[in-house]
Amino acid sequence: MDAQAIRALNAEIEQESQYCETMLKEIGRVIVGQEPLLTRLLIGLLADGHLLLEGVPGLAKTTAVKTLADTIEARFSRIQFTPDLLPADITGAVIYNQNDGTFTARKGPLFANIVLADEINRAPAKVQSALLEAMQERQVTIGDSTFPLPTPFLVLATQNPIELEGTYPLPEAQVDRFLFKLRVSYPARDEEMDILRRETQVERATASSVVATEQIARSRTTVRRIYMDTRIEEYIVDLVRATREPEQVGLGRLGPLIDYGASPRATIFLALASKAHAYLNRRAYVTPDDIHAVAADTLRHRLVLSYEAEAEEATADDLLDEILRAVEVP
User: Fold this and answer.
1) Angle CA(177)–CA(181)–CA(187) in degrees, nearest 5?
2) What is the pTM for the complete model shown?
3) Same domain for 33 and 158?
4) Distance CA 128, CA 118 (A)
5) Which of 227, 250, 302, 329 has a Cα-to-Cα distance from 62 of 20 to 30 A?
6) Is position 1 within any domain?
7) Residue 140 near residue 205, CB atoms below 8 Å
């Protein structure tokens, strides 16, 4: 892509992306603070990637997802995952009609544009697999018929990291299906004061619909058109490979701490997330800053740490921070 084409795409993005700021303002009417979370929800929407939100109860994870859905003219579905849930409860089932003796496929709550999978780690493996298969294939089989899921289709799953009794942790291979794993933290003191005042009023604020699904589809196409220089592509590949072979970037001591590094899927997702971040900043090209902004969220759930790392109390974020400092920036 030459300089003239980049300038033309930049002007197109400048015009097209204005609705993103409007969405953030509408969400901000309901959600106090949490700007990194809200930005990454939009990145997931633009990059066509599912998100896993992790945080203690009461941090507005569910409210943030529902509010995001409220700003889009789209169908929203919430599934509360429980240990007694069955795959048919989310995908749908074949129903027998006694009047005419026929069987009819009744679609489940997965058939929505935005699906909130609340406390996904409380459901057994069969249910998790049914959801994650739908996320990957974008289709659901009910009986002997296969139905495509609507477009856009975005799954936002939540899980509680502190209460593990009666839960079914997601296997690493299934967690890899998520674009981001987001850590939701406590609000600052002034933000918590604002939350208190808002939530104790007679009338609570709501968000309005400001964008259609067709606009989201156009933006997803534009995101993929964003220019990525060869040196930037090499940088992304080098970052991901450094999680598998840290000794190649002078971090041999990290080798025993990482059993398995990130897969090629991480390379793809890191590139798409970086492009979506550039789009939100109204740029037609990717910079290293875009990559750094989304690297931890894209890679933290893709590192399988060893027992030695646990013994040293080393986290995935700690190791990624070292890798980001070690790999040469173009």
Assistant:
1) 155
2) 0.87
3) yes
4) 12
5) 302
6) no
7) no
